[in-house]
Amino acid sequence: MKRKGQHLAGQYIISAAVVLIAVLAVFFPENILGVQILDYNVHIMVGMLLLGFGALALNYSKLMTTSLAACMVMCIFLKNESNDTMIMPSANTEARLSVAHFNVSNIQDLDHLTNTLDELDVDLLSFQELTPDWNYILQDHLKANYPYNMSIVRIDPYGMAMYSKKSFTSMDTFMHNNKPNLQAELLIDGKSISVFGSYLEPEITKTSTIQTREHLDMISYRIRDLKSPVIALGDYNMVYWANAISRFRAKAQVIHSRRDVSEDGLKPPYDHIFFTTDMECTKFENINDLQENHIGILGVYQIKSEDNTNESQPTALSSLSFKE
After folding, report:
1. How far apart are CA 197 and CA 137, in angstroms?
2. pTM (two decimals)
3. Which of 134, 172, 223, 259 has CB atoms 3.0–4.6 Å from 83's, for a disulfide?
4. Positions of E strands within 136-278
5. CA distance 245 to 256
């Protein structure tokens, strides 16, 4: 009887810890520690699942129930932060734009990159952390198939470029704390589509967290000011379920391209592609090198047909509860 009571007390203690971890992982305040914990939500979710199965094997029913329930809550949380489209939309007859984004600092095999660029054959390429050396390499390789480009070459991580098969109808650069953002507009089948390229400062200090929030606000305001469909891409240096990303999606009224975390494994990438509600994503996938290292992302987007213009609305800003 005494041993049974000890086992029961142990279950209550561990169950309480599981509940606390789940609450912190989902509702942690937006500060440096919270950002770091969010990076490991997938690990925490898998750990709770394994703990639940372990408790089942040991016939610890209370711990099993708590662990699996906490795992379910985290699954729902992560799914709600993803693109909620269960099946990718079929191609329609509206304007279509395919894009691929790379952070060249992740590239270890130049030949593989150039072969990948040729095989992808997308309409627009985005590159970030563009240094003078990389600028020379890309211009030399892409000038034949991608004659239109806009670039900002820097020796810090904030260099970036866009290469397009189609001419830009407008090009702009806007700055936030000396960090550039690219904004381009293309005319495709008579329809204008704008593309934003941004690189956000990692949230490693309180100051950088505030600056990142302000940077995202600036991007969202510019997106909302446009009448044309928008694709926003780049290295945002945070997981897509981060509080700052949720706020950005609500303010800019954009949708995230990733549908779930399953294909990203235990280290979800920090690069993202968002699109406004008048568009839909027909294809999205990660791009890996020969060693399965993540080097980029690919997305295909089309303007919605009139029958679908009221679907896939993002969460309204007023319905979100943000932590300060």
Report:
1. 20
2. 0.84
3. 259
4. 148-152, 160-164, 168-176, 179-188, 191-199, 230-235, 254-256, 271-276
5. 9
Question: Average per-residue pLDDT in the chain?
Answer: 85
The answer to whether the beta carbons of residues 110 and 122 sit under 8 Å apart is no
What confidence category does residue 34 fall into, taking pLDDT thresholds of 50, 70 and 90?
A: low
144 φ, ψ (degrees, to nearest 5): -75, -45
Dig out the tokens for 114 from the structure. Answer: 């150039």
b/e map 78-105, b = 16+ CB within 10 Å: beebbbeeeeebeebebbbbbbbbbbbe
User: How remote is the C-alpha of 64 from its chain's centroid?
Assistant: 32
100 Cβ contact list (under 8 Å, min separation 6): 117, 120, 122, 124, 125, 126, 287, 296, 297, 298, 299
Expressed in angstroms, the distance from the first to the final Cα of the chain is: 48
User: Percentage of the chain surpassing pLDDT 70?
Assistant: 85
- Mean pLDDT for the stretch of residues 288-310: 85
Among 316, 178, 146, 173, which Cα is nearest to 247's? 316
What tens digit of pLDDT does each residue of 220-248 get?
999 999 989 999 999 999 888 888 898 99
